[in-house]
């Protein structure tokens, strides 16, 4: 569950999850949906994925940059993320997706990186939330 946020020079999203693991999975899906059309993406192969950080903010940024590495560097579109509850400084899991096919997964926006600009992550009565802005 996520929504796109307007920004003058970049693009952002707000993601939610009942747990931290669900938040990280939904944030990854938000990033993917901003960069490519995922309507035809399939859960064809599992891919191991992990990240670490010094605090909640750096953990989320590093996690999303790892997702971006798979998308741009390894040319993989991931449709589903299954991660265990993140440890204080690490998130580990699997993502299911397939090799990126430009005909089936056309690009939407070129995402250069995940930023710390206006980054928020926290928990309230409804669960976990994050606001993230991407450099495009």
Write the H/E string, N to C: EEHEHEEEEE
Number of strands: 8
Number of helices: 2
User: How much of the residues is beta strand, in percent?
Assistant: 35-45%
Topology readout:
Elements: E1 2-5, E2 11-17, H1 20-35, E3 45-52, H2 56-73, E4 76-83, E5 90-99, E6 113-114, E7 120-124, E8 127-135
Antiparallel strand pairs: 1-2, 2-8, 3-5, 4-5, 6-8, 7-8
Brief overview, please?
The chain is α+β, with helices and mostly antiparallel strands.
Describe this structure in words.
The protein is α+β, with helices and mostly antiparallel strands and 136 residues long. It has one domain: Archease domain (Archease, Possible Chaperone, Chain: A, domain 1). 25% of the residues lie in helices and 39% in strands. It has 2 helices and 8 strands. It has helices at 20-35, 56-73; strands spanning 2-5, 11-17, 45-52, 76-83, 90-99, 113-114, 120-124, 127-135. The strands form 2 sheets. Strands 1, 2, 6, 7 and 8 form a 5-stranded antiparallel sheet that branches. Helix 1 runs parallel beside helix 2. The longest helix has 18 residues, at 56-73. The chain is globular and about 40 Å long. The chain starts with a strand and ends with a strand.
Relevant terms:
136 residues; alpha+beta; Archease, Possible Chaperone, Chain: A, domain 1; 3-stranded antiparallel sheet; 25% helix
């Amino acid at each position: 569950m996520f929504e796109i946020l307007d920004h003058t020079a970049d693009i952002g999203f707000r993601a939610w999850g009942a747990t931290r693991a669900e938040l990280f999975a939904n944030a990854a899906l938000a990033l993917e949906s901003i960069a490519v059309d995922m309507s035809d993406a399939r859960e064809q192969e599992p891919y191991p994925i992990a990240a670490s950080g010094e605090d909640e903010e750096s953990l989320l940024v590093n996690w999303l940059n790892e997702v971006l590495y798979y998308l741009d560097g390894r040319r993989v579109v991931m449709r589903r993320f299954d991660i265990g509850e993140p440890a204080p400084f690490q998130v580990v899991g699997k993502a299911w997706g397939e090799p990126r096919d430009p005909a089936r997964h056309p690009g939407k926006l070129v995402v250069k990186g995940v930023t710390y600009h206006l980054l928020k992550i926290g928990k309230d009565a409804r669960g976990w939330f994050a606001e993230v802005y991407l450099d495009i």
